[in-house]
Structures are given as C-alpha cells and as structure tokens.
Amino acid sequence: MRGLVAVLLAVITGMFCSFVTYLPEIGDVNTAPNQHVTPTYISRSVEDTGSPNVVTGVIIDYRGFDTMWETSVMFLAGLTTVLLLTSNKVGRRPEEEPEDPEEGDVVK
Amino acid sequence: MRDGFGGIVLSTAFRLLVPFSIVYGVYILCFGEYSPGGGFQAGALLAVGVLLSRMILGEKARFNIDGKTSVVMAGVGTFLYTLVGWITLFGGGLFLEYDFMPIKLEPMHEMHAMAIFIIEIGVTICVMMTIINLMDSIIKRGDDDGSIE
C-alpha cells in the first residue's frame, strides 16, 4: 500500500514537473496577461490612483483589500510568535537543581 | 542585555548610523508613491534604528519602546489601514473606495494619493512595532534564562 502511494505521488509530481515546459515563456508578448491586463494597468494607473509608481498603485489602490489582510496577517503572525516565545518552556535552560545536602556536608 | 554592549567604537558608529537610517526610513515612507519603496520597507528601516539603539545603549536608550507599547501600536497601525476603509464607507462609497474621502481635492486622483499615504503610514507603524515586539520578547526570554548577562 505504501509503495502504491509512493508510486502515485511520483507520477503526479512528474506530471506537474513536465507540464512546466508547456507554460508560456516569461515576457512573451502573445500571452493573455501581456496583451490585456498589463497595458491597461500601465496606461490607466496614473490617472486612476494618482501615484506615479505603478506598483504602489496596484498593491494599495487596485488591490487594497489584499494588502489590508496582508498587514493583518503580519500583525497576527508577530503576535502569535511573541505569545509562543513568552509562554513556552521548550528550549529554555533547565532550572538549577539544589545541591545534595550530603555532598555539602562532605565538602565542609 | 539590560545594559547593552556598547563600547566607544559602537557608540560612535551608532551616532552616525541611527539618525541616517531613521531619516532614510521616513524618506522611503514619504516618497513611496514616486519611487521604489513603501510602508513595509520604511517600517523595517525605522525598526532597525530603534533596535540598534536598544542593543547598543541598553534599556536606558532614549528611543527605547517597550513590549506593551509596541503591541498596542502595532494594532493601531493595522487599525489605521482599516479606518480609511471605514471612512470611505461612511462617506457614501464602497470599502476602500478612495473617491469618497472626506477632504475634497480637485483632481480626483489627489484624494487617492492622500488615502494611499495614510495607508502607508498605517503599514509602516504595524511593521515597525511588530519587529520591535519580536526583538523585545527574544531579549526578555534571554534575560529570564540568564543566558545573556
């Protein structure tokens, strides 16, 4: 059963990897995003958003809702890490055990 | 870590580095619309300024921001972003529709630019305070263990 699952996973991974070669090349002018989406953003970004930087216009004006949740995710991730760091005992240095009283007597 | 590890060399370099990084962070924040940059990068730079002063001068540093304040301010930064959305919502538009900001400026895209700037300030505060908060908790953990004297 485990061998079958492994073979299946290997076949699926091989299919995914071989499909990559059929994707259009990066920067190809004839693909759909480069023919419709990108020229629209470049030509309309300044008068729509008032920002000369197209990247800022896209991430904050056109995709503002996305960036809002990105900021929230970053805040929550930081908060969770702080909670883990302040409460968790894993990885801390163990507390020092009190010395054995008999050994102390011997030393004296 | 409460005392910092500044010597004469580090303290002199600190006087040169920290004002430069803070001024550069504010520059990146204000010119994020016109040039590469924006809220996330500006927040990281401002946090570097605060953290360097914390690490070199210790807890008596003038720029020091403690853990509780940084948690509150990170929430405030995230809220500032959402507040712009609510302002436009109450102004009659959709959520984050910047045409309905309360201050009317004549070309329509000037209102967009103003809203973008407010949002960048919110993102900056959130990123800066989150980084400071992480560093503060790590330093406190070291202090509790006694691993860093």
Overall pLDDT metric of chain A: 83
What are the low-pLDDT stretches of chain A, counting only 5+ consecutive residues below 50?
none
Helical content of chain B stands at 55-70%
Oligomerization state: heterodimer
**Sheet with the most strands, sense and barrel status of chain B:** none
The gist of it:
The complex is a heterodimer of chains A (108) and B (149). Chain A is mainly α.
Would you mind describing this structure in some detail?
The complex is a heterodimer of chains A (108) and B (149). Chain A is mainly alpha-helical. Chain A has a domain at 53-88. Chain A has helices at residues 2-19, 32-49, 54-62, 64-87, 101-107. In chain B, 70% of the residues lie in helices and 0% in strands. The longest helix of chain B is centred in the C-terminal third of the chain and has 38 residues, at 108-145. Chain B has 149 residues and is mostly helical. Chain B has one domain (8-145). The mean pLDDT of chain B is 85. Chain B is built from four helices and no strands. Chain A binds chain B through residues 46-53, 55-57, 59-61, 64-65, 67-68, 71-72, 74-75, 78-79, 81-82, 85-86, 92-93, and chain B through 32-36, 38, 67, 71, 74-75, 77-78, 81-82, 85, 95-96, 98, 107-113, 116, 119-120, 122-123, 126-127, 130-131, 133-134, 137-138, 140-141, 144-147.
Features:
heterodimer, A: 108 residues, mainly alpha, 5 helices, 70% helix, flat, B: 149 residues, 4 helices, elongated
Topology:
The complex is a heterodimer of chains A (108) and B (149).
Chain A: H1 2-19, H2 32-49, H3 54-62, H4 64-87, H5 101-107
Helix pairs in contact in A: 2-3, 3-4
Chain B: H1 8-30, H2 39-57, H3 67-90, H4 108-145
Helix pairs in contact in B: 1-2, 2-4, 3-4
